[in-house]
Amino acid sequence: MSLAIFYRLTGEMLLALMILSCVGALSNADEIDEDSLIDGTIDVEAIASRAEDAQRADRRFMQARVTVQSARGAIERLIAFECWNDRIERRSLIRVLAPASDAGVALLNLPPNLWRYQPEMGRTQRVPRSDFSEPWMKSDFAIGDLIDPPGEPEDDEVELLRVERPSEGATGARSYVVQYTPRPAASAARGTRVAWIGVEDGLTLREEFYDARGERLRTLQFGDFRSVAGRRFPHRWTAIGPGKKGRESILEIRELRFEADFDDAIFAIGNLSPAPAASRDPDPNG
Fold it and tell me: CATH fold of 47-271, please?
């Protein structure tokens, strides 16, 4: 072999080794970024704010249906409702449309007060804020899942627990696993919450809620993301309670509007009774 050929082959080998070394370094750096705990380079506050902004506009209206299914898949209950959320004033109203026996039941959140109207009683009552964690309409959703958004990022201490990859063989993307612990001023009605937030898109994919003893209360899973007014929003929510293997409640959004124009009268206590004549078709199958 001539000396020139030897030097050429040696140079090509060195170049190949350098490329492989760089690729390996990049791969290792990516693993460190994904699997290490907070090292000062990941802004967990920014992650929380991005997730909050991705799913909540200043004002939102939605009409939806909740199906409560038994462990064997039998439908136990169908509930149709409409809901108004005002993020700016932190007000919200939810009114049941069906079944007929519950039509007109309403909850109005005017912090620090929560009001409930029961048509059969014909009166409005103040509800303890501790009831936010109670089941809504005999479903696996809590009152607070619908009537009271989780809160602004500044209401909680946020901690990045880990960056999670899909299990082997599963589809999906990486998720930040973020824990929200209410600050003392906001802790009366809420416990600790752990959320799985997409690394690439900032969308909340799953949430787990815990009480003060660390016992899991329920799990929410979000899917069927669709674009509405420039936002990707989950149109299917699944709630799973503790100790109810196989039972779940599924919320399906039928109508969704962001930045909707609200008449302030919507959030007036006097608007709870009677139910407005303009309410939509209460057929839960519609």
Answer: outer membrane lipoprotein receptor (LolB), chain A (2.50.20)
